[in-house]
Amino acid sequence: MKKFLVILFLAGSWFSGAAAAPAVKAELSSKNITQGSVFLIKVFDKNAERVKIKESVFPLFAGKDGVSKGVLIGVPAWWDIGGKYALEIDGKTTGQIIEIAGRESKTEKIDIEKSKLVTNEETAKEDKILRQAIAELKSKKYWSGSFVKPVEGRITTEFGIKRTVNGSQGGVHRGVDIAAKEGTDIKAANDGVVTLARKHTLTGNTVVINHGAGVVSVYYHMSEILVKEGSNIKTGEVLGRVGSTGVSTGAHLHWGIWIFGVDVNPLELIEKEIDF
Are 200 and 250 in contact (CB under 8 A)? Predict the structure, then answer.
């Protein structure tokens, strides 16, 4: 499933295009979407199967009301700024236009002990396993309503920060770091299935939860893991405890959300109305 980046540039908070009578009515949840943000497409036809934006196609999932379908989509950071694309449902245009836009980019410098910096075949294998867990698509929607913050604490590194590590380019931070006392409980952000629960060299004790309908959450650097792979998880259930395992400079939780393989700002799933 292809990755994509979009921003809506619409007149209202919920909008239905009227330029040409759409084959199916659809609503778009926000006009203020930027890189790393999320938005919801709700389609009022229980028989609709997919939506398309540019060349990216996304499946639709049954809504709670029994007569609509929806999909939550993430906005990645690597598509051209300024593009305008039509929203299609099952091959038919709705008359709605989606416009791409950027976001302010911040930078951060960090220093890590050289003994903790690792680049070898083992970390490459672990990274492949982690990426496979993040990319796995489950057709069932387990999550419901807004997500919850997995641990209370100060945000020490925001989503999307460009990092310089020991003076060299270190990539982009694909989640938020939440500082907390070592041993603090870490809770599941929403219902789902544990698809990964093991220790990795870079991310330390790591848990991945698949929430279904394209949404996955990750939890890194735990001092200990308290769940097993394959377990069904409920919102607020304790997954493990805050630590500083792997490549880390202090006790904290790295919490990330990925939607159809696209990293997004996890705080938006707390702040926005995202359910359908």
Answer: no
Residue % of the chain over a pLDDT of 70 = 79
CA distances from 115 to 132, 186, 247 (A): 28, 28, 10
CA distances from 258 to 19, 39, 196, 261, 264 (A): 33, 13, 14, 5, 6
Has residue 127 got a pLDDT over 70? yes
Q: Where are the alpha helices (DSSP H) in 60-185?
A: 121-135
Measured between alpha carbons, how far is 254 from 133 in angstroms, rounded to an integer?
17
In tens, the pLDDT along 29-60 reads 876 677 788 999 999 999 999 999 888 899 99
45: left (phi over 0), alpha (psi -120 to 50) or beta: beta
Question: From residue 16, how far is each of 111, 142, 196, 202 by CA, in Å?
Answer: 49, 28, 40, 45
Neighbouring residues of 168: CB distance < 8 A, sequence distance ≥ 6: none
d(CA 7, CA 127): 30
Tell me the two tokens of residue 214: 């394209």
Helix (H, G, I), strand (E, B) or coil at 134: helix
Give start and end residues of each alpha helix (H) in 55-110: none
Chain centroid to Cα 132, Å, comes to 15
Residue 260, both tokens: 């159809």
Sign of torsion over alpha carbons 60, 272, 145, 183? positive
